Amino acid sequence: MTNLSLLSTLSFKQQIALSFSRSASSYDQVAQFQRQVADQLLSHLPAASMNQLLDLGTGTGYALTTLCQTYPSAKVLAVDIAEGMLTYAAQQNTEQGSITYLCADAEALPLAEHSVDLIYSSLSIQWCRDYPRLFKELHRILRPGGQVLLATLGPRSLYQLRDAWSVVDDEQHVNQFSALENLLFSASDFQLACQKTQMINLGYTDLDQLLKSLKALGASVVEGRALNGLGGRQRLRLLREAYERFRQADGLLPLSYEVYFIHLSKE
Ligand SMILES: C[S@@+](CC[C@H](N)C(=O)[O-])C[C@H]1O[C@@H](n2cnc3c(N)ncnc32)[C@H](O)[C@@H]1O
Question: Residue 235 domain-assigned?
Fold first, then answer.
């Protein structure tokens, strides 16, 4: 089997794990948006004492330093579906507190019920496809009185890229993200403590830079598409032309993210 046909047999989750593992060493160089979101989410960490924390979809482990400093006596579980991300995170965080790295799927966590005091997850759960299952898992592992801090993406994210691709063909090139109502409906076993939606706009000099940065993040996996190229020069030329209509007065090509910040608690 060739590499390409092997890649086309992978499930969406296997593609995510492979793509993020491959991008572990390039991720931090292009993750300005992810840092901005994480910093906002971390500024809302509850001022309570914690025994067991979970950083769900830890990636390169950016949040681990702040989690360990804020809760010095807590144990931190850094979970990710991408083994390569965990290996990288462990190499970066050699002097932090008590961190255990665990390769697992957020929708099927190998953790005991009522075992976690705080679940922190920044820009990771948008990769899950079964939100009722995800929130059931989070509810199961959280102890009564525990809290969940989430940042995830809404459907207006990447709308310029989706729109430009629609000029090229009818295929899906950009993932769909769930609306807030659907997310909160799936999380209805929890109490909603607080929610905020924010549009964050990034700017790129050209489309190549924009696409390269998505790839370097590991975020160019699209459900239903094999992990291969964009499909030839002609299509890329059409995409470039279609994207041009979004070019801003400052000369940059915009890419927007709709970010949901969600704070849940369990009775
Ligand atoms: C955009 S990165 C965010 C990483 C980190 N939280 C940050 O703020 O930089 C998304 C991470 O979620 C992980 N991920 C995606 N789907 C997952 C799942 N079902 N279970 C656990 N981790 C998952 C990816 O492997 C990736 O490391």
Answer: no
In this structure, is residue 66 part of a structural domain? yes
Structural domain including 44 reads 3-156+176-201+257-265
In a domain, 91, yes or no: yes
Note the pLDDT tens digit of each residue in 51-105.
999 999 999 999 999 999 999 999 999 999 999 999 999 999 887 779 999 999 9
**Would you say the CB of residue 31 lies under 6 angstroms from ligand 1?**
yes
Burial class (CB in 10 A: 0-12, 13-18, 19+), 187: buried
71 Cα: distance to centroid of ligand 1 (angstroms):
22
Q: What is the pLDDT of residues 94-134, one digit of tens each?
A: 877 799 999 999 999 999 999 999 999 999 999 998 999 99
Q: Is the CB of 122 under 6 A from ligand 1?
A: yes
Distance 97 CA to ligand 1 centre (A): 21
- Ligand 1 atom nearest to 55, measured from its CA: 6
Nearest alpha carbon, ligand 1 atom 17 = 81
Binding site membership of 21 for ligand 1 (Cβ less than 6 Å): no
CA distances from 104 to 33, 109, 218 (A): 25, 6, 18
The number of domains in the chain is 1
Packing angle of the helix pair 233-244, 159-168 (nearest 10 deg): 130
CA of 128 to the centre of ligand 1 (A): 10
* β-bridge mates for residue 195, sequence order: 262
